Give the backbone structure.
Amino acid sequence: MMNSIKKYKMPADFKKKTIQEYQNLNEQYQGRACVSEVYGQMTDYAPGLGGRDYQDLPQVSKSELEKYVKYCNAHGIEFNYVLNGSCMGNQEFDADFHPKFSAFLSELYEMGIRTLTIALTSLLEIIKHHPYPFHVKISVI
């Protein structure tokens, strides 16, 4: 029987102390279990692109996200940016949306984000043709 490592994905609270605690747990349970990923999103960009009500999320700016992602990456924990809203009011089919969304994806990649979670297949088509190679997870929202 193969012994596989259990990998946990946790919602981001955007606190460095939490990442430090995850790293401590990862060291304590090395080879058995780890927190491999945290997920979340900015609250000052594109309301409606996430699966949760913005009022329920930690308020995070672009600058704060960038610092947090770098901190996560430095501690061996990946950041997964969630774009898993179930409806965008068809703006993803508007030609004006594509260049803006593509520029946003470039910003995320340059911050160090390599994984996205999405719910809409229409976004997958845009991401698939983006020059940066994101790993995409599908949400069931």
